[in-house]
Every structure is written in structure tokens, then in C-alpha cells.
Amino acid sequence: MFELICNCLLFVFLGVTYFTHVLEAKVPKSYLKNPNVMSPDAWPKIVIILLLICIALNIWKIIRKNKGNPEFSFAAFGKNTVAFLKSRMFIGMVILVAASLILEPLGFVVTAALVMFSYGMLLGAKKWWLLAIVAVVLGIVLHVVFSGLLSVNLPRGTVPFLRSFSLFLENLF
Amino acid sequence: MSLGEMFVSGLSAVWGGGTMFLMVIVAIVLGTIFGALPGVSATMAVALGLTFTYTMGPVPAIVFLTAIYCSSITGGSITAILFKIPGVPSSAPTTFDGYPMAQRGEAGKALGVALLASAIGGLFSALVMFLLSTPLSKAALAFSNGDMFAITFLGLSILVVLDTKHMLTTIISGLLGLLLACIGQDPMAGVARLTFGQTSLLSGMEMIPVLIGLFAVTEVLKQTGAKKRLSADDGVGGTKGKVNTKMPSLKELLSIKWTLLRCSVVGTVVGILPGAGATIASFMCYTMENKLSKYPEKFGTGIIDGIAASEAANNAATGGAMVPLLCLGIPGGNAAAVMASALALKGVQMGPRLLNVQPEFLSATFITMIITNIVMVIVAIGIAKVFAQILAVPYYYLGPIILLLATIGSFSEGNFVGVTVMVIAGIFGIVVKYMHLNSAAIVLGLVLGGMCEKYFSQAFQKAHIVTSPMGFGDIMAKIGSTLFGTPIAAVVMIACILMLLSPLYMPLIKKARGKKA
User: Fold this and answer.
1) Assuming Cys at both sites, which of A29, A136, B74, B355 could form a disulfide with B137, CB separation 3.0 to 4.6 Å?
2) What range defines the domain where residue A59 resides?
3) Could you tell me the pTM of the whole model?
4) B-contacting residues in A 128-167 (Cβ below 8 Å)
């Protein structure tokens, strides 16, 4: 059912996109004067039309394949959704989204340590204290290696003392 | 520049006063470990390797990534043989014979054959790449835009045919990739398209975060949700960190010489085809050798022929994949696509002109492949022998480390949007999995999409010139001469059409054959 819903949503989204967002600015008149050029919206529109045809076929195929399947119902989908929201994979996604949000204010060192610890626990690490030590050390080592030694840009954070700490690590070598 | 001069120029580029050579060794060690680690594919290894190249020049960057790419494919055979877990998907056929041999206490022999076959396959394809690239680049300079469009389109068409069971979803995936490539300003008029008001999308999709997200983050998320995670804990070589390293005899190696040659040739050819890659090459050659063998019943029970077939083919495909990238600017596979994106970041556009202007790219890549294929044999044996315990690193350490390297790789452009894009792409990869779409086709569509549109628009502009606004007939004539205007374009486009329509006529052919039988 998830596959069907995703296909339907994609179909609707592409349909709306076709009429509203393919071209978001006016095409320069000088460009339009040349009768031999392809309009900027032609290529994406061709791709969208082909996609709509293929997705419609896929929807038909999914419905035909699952005819009579008891799992192919909204009730089963609801159950599966609840199970997914409790799954480790979903928590992993939440950790990743949270990490992308805290990266700017807290900087790489703290974010790396938090991700390492939380994701490690999620994946079943037994010795939390060991994981915590590894997480902190790894955050610092990665920052020193990439930012300090390899001159790769890494976020220092906007919190003053975390920023100072990152700068201190970068200037170690 | 003659071939001899190119060889010398490549040597000096890779030697680079010793530092560059040292960097190649580091890349080989990294690549072999990445490849050996379960759950880290060759593409992911190259994507993670990108993180180290941001401060490098274009030539060192391609040298570093090529070394990682070649060695990761070889590294995958270590876990395939010792733990029955292919480190990279292309080593899956290696498990069929490698693991039974390891169980019999012949892990050393199996590893020896795998590494030697990898080296021979890799060296063969490197040589083919070196000899073929210059003439092909010269020929490509004469290609019209229509020819280039047809060749680019061929890559997408092949991908559809290779996944015969899921053709429709593969077509959808390729088209989705093409659509994602349309985001941003169009290549001809500079008009914004599909940005949904986001100014950060005006310059188009950030390719590297998308690739890292789809290949690295998605894989970690998949493993997070898996009931039994990839683990090398319970393999025959991993429990005590000891591996029997008794190597194969010369007689045994000579007995597989034709297998090595055949699979090196087939692997290179498959690698050259845009869209097909090391995994297809290794499965294809394993099946081919099984059919050609005098003792097909022994395949899968632990014989060196099976390992040689798989490993020679997958390494040969790596060199093959570099040919279209260097000559035409069309990546032969996902890992080559990551390399192309990395070099594009540095302002280098791969293609026929590149070899005219900067031939050191080809020579440096060739020499790197030669060095890598030789040095990795020693490195891989060392890794298998001494670090078998390292390969058993628990996933609760490995998974988060991959995520952190992925974050560094996505942020290296100094842009928080990159990290957000990586996370979205990672989650999108999971949706793709549940929708049974093909992420390789999405990536290929995304990477080739820009080229496809550019070549098509330029060819369209030059074909069937009109002086007044076009009518329906003019449009059709223009499209016709864009797609079939030159002999090369016509032949390639007809091949593409036949491939794309094959799901319609193949069942009819099979049915007719069945009736005859």
C-alpha cells in the first residue's frame, strides 16, 4: 500500500508541478525571437509527461498485482505506519534530521559526538560509557584531522565557547 | 603527445616528489579497508574518499579517487572469502566459491587467486583504457551534439534493459533522475525551473551531497532497520584474527589463464558501456565461465575458477568505466559519476577536449591504476592477514563513522544546505527502496540529465533550420534530424529504441520460439 500511496502522491505532485513550477521566470524576448531554439520548459515537460505515463502504468500494475492481498488495505497500512514510527530506522532518520539542525549552532565536534553516541546506542552498543568516550575522542580527532590537517571546512558552531574550542583544535598543528 | 610521452608524464604526475605516491598508498590502504568493510560499496568508498580531496588539485584528486575505486573493488573480495559477506556488491559471486574454500582451510589460496585475478583484470583494463582513450577522444571531437545526445541516452537505455524484472520502475527512476537534473537555471536561456522559490536551488541540485546521501546515508539507515545487520564477527577468518595465507601454486594459476583472459576482456567491455558496471560484469563472467567449464558441477563448491572469473571481471570493469568518463565525459557507472562530480567541483569538465588540453589526466589515471593494481595485492594480503579483527568492527561503530564522514563530505563546500540535502537524499533513498525504484538509475539520470538536455537543445537548434515560427511539421522534422541526423546518432538511437521497446516484443519472440519447440 505504501508503494501505491507514494506513486499516487508522486503522480499528483508531478501533475501540479507541470502546470505551476516548470517555468518560474519569463523567458527573455531575445531568446524567443529565434524560431530554432527549444523553449526552456520543453525538456522538463517532456520528462514529466513520460513520468506521468509510466507512474500511471505502475499504479495500475501495483493494483493488479495486489488484488485479493489482505495486506493491501488502508487498515494494514495504518498498522505498518505505526510500526514504522516505532522502528529503529525512523529513530535513525530523526537523529539525522536533528543533527543537521544542531550542526550550525553547536559545530562539528559536539554534533559528531552526539551523533556517534546516539546512533551507536540505537545500533545496539552495549557499553555506553565506552561508546561515549569513543564519541568524544572521534569528534575531536575528526575535527583536528580534517579541519586542522587537511584544511577542510567544518562548522565551528555559533556558541562562543564551542567556537573557541574548535579554533583551538584547528590551530593545534 | 605520444603514448610514451604520456606514460612518462603520468609517472611524474603520480610520483610528484614522493608525496603523491605516498598519497596513492594511503588511498590504496583506505580503499581496501573501505571495500572490505561490509556495507561500504565501492561507490560509497569513492564518495567517502571525496572528503579527503577537497583541498587537492584536480590531478591529485582523480589519482586519489581512482586508487580508492580500484582497491575498494579488490577489498570486497576479502570479506566475501573470509566471512561470506561481499564487501562490495560486485564481489557477491566470489562468495560462491571463495567461502567454501575458506571453510576447507584454503582461505589463503582463495585470497591469492582473488587478488591475482583482480590485479590481472585491473591491469588489462588499464592498458585498454590507455590505448583506447586517445583515439576515442580524437574521434569524439568530431561527434555532433546529436551523436553525443544519442551516446548519453544509451547509458540510460542500457540500465533499463539490464534490470529486466523491474523495467518500468527503472524507467521511472531514470526519468526522475532526468527531472532532478532540470532543477535550476536552464542551460540555454538561463531561466529558473523547478526551484519552488528556493534560491539555493538556482544553481541546480548539489550533486555530491545527493550522491553521498543516496549511497552512504541510505545504506546506514537500511542497516539500522535490518533485523540482522552486516557483521563479520562469525566468519571463518574473523574469530581469532588468523587467516591461512598459503598461496596458490603456479600450476594452479596457469590452469585458469584462459578464464582470466576471457573475464578481463568481457569485464572491460561491460565496464565501458555506460550504465553497466562491476556487479553486472562479475555475475556475467561467473555465469559464462560456468557454462564454458569442463566441470560446471564443481562451480559453487569451492574452485578457483569461480573466484578468478568474478574478480578478474569486476576489476576489469573499473578500468572500462573510466574510458567513457575520460573520453566523452560520460561516467560509466556510479563511482565514475562521483568522480565526475568531484572534478566538476574543481572546474574540470571531463570530455574529449580535456585530453587535448590536459593529457596528464589520462596518463595519471593510467599510472595510478597500474600502481594500484600491483600494490593492492600486497596491501590486501597484509590487511587480510594482520587486520582480520579490524574487519570485524561492530556496526554500532562503523555506521555512525560512515555518517560522520558523509557529513564532512557534504559540508566541505562550506554550506549547511549540503548537509540538509544529504539527509533528505538519504531518507529519499529509503522511500526509493520501498517504492522498488532503482537508485542507480536515478543517479545516472541525475548525472547524465544535464548533458542529455544540453546536447539535445544544441542539436535541436542546429537541425532543420527554419526562418519563421515552427509548425507541427517543422517540429517533427527538427526532432527527426536531431535524433537521426547523422549515421552514428541514427544507429545508437535505433539501438536505444530497440532496447526500450524490448519488454513489448521479447515476450512475443519467446512465445513464438516456444511454439516452434
Assistant:
1) B355
2) 2-85
3) 0.76
4) 131, 134-135, 138, 142, 146, 150-155
